[in-house]
Amino acid sequence: MPTKKLSVVVTRRLPDAVQSRMAELFDVTLRDTDTPMSRDALAAAMQGADVLVPTITDAIDAALLAQAGPRLKLIANYGAGVDHIDTGTARQRGILVSNTPGVLTDDTADMTMALMLSVLRRIPEGMRIAQSDDWTGWAPTAMLGGRIAGRRLGILGMGRIGQAVARRARAFGMQIHYHNRKRLRAEIEEPLGATYWDSLDQMVARMDVISVNCPHTPSTFHLMNARRLKLMKPDAVIVNTSRGEVIDENALTRMLRSGEIAGAGLDVFERGHEINPRLKALSNVILLPHMGSATVEGRLEMGEKVLINIKTFADGHRPPDLVVPGQL
Ligand SMILES: O=CC(=O)O
Hints:
By secondary structure, the chain is α/β, with parallel strands linked by helices. It contains 13 helices and twelve strands. One of its GO terms (cellular component) is cytosol.
């Protein structure tokens, strides 16, 4: 006798191939528009479904989880970061949470390098000049940026993505430093040629570039607060492809305006897509619309991870990418 298919609700439009496979495997409700679901629609979805597939734009907080129906057993997030989900409350309510780690590591690390290169070598500014009618040709003192090789890079958060950034930056000739909750094992640290700093303050004060690569958790919120940002050298720059909440965006904006920090490359912001207008007005920043994992390949592989997590659960096993609250 065929077993009943799981009822799965997907909150955002996903790549076609992912949606088709979902429809083959599960009793799936897909979205054909690219706008996030309203809170009411999310609550309704959580009342009737066995599995919810949300993304970063869905705030699955305790109040929403309190409205979840008894069938909801798995939240299979499409994305690695789960700071938009109250994983502790989900756990208390017996709802599993999974994510999509690993498949966006290279893409996000590439984007981190792209931001560093763009800020230090002034790429968007150069493009605007080349596209304008004002460019009069090569000049010895025009568009001078900073050399990447030899610069000290301080990586804040040395997980998968931090390590992938370290490998790339080393190939560019940068000196690699890092701060992490735990020091890496020697067999991982040594090939990266990375220097560990137990004190984040001391590392921040000595770096030419800071790269934020830790997840956003209660303990990393505003880790780069005004006091720490002030420790940065005035010619240093900061890049962030993780989550905006790790940096105090207002303090960063003030210091970029006053020249206390030389530049920033940001793919993420403290209030989602609502970027501080003062930040938008600055010429020493590069702002991207949260596209670190936005490759065709990455988004397909994220979908595959979601499918594997749900299918494994449907087959009665533990989803491979379960998120354990407090272990991020
Ligand atoms: O930011 C993207 C993700 O967390 O997957």
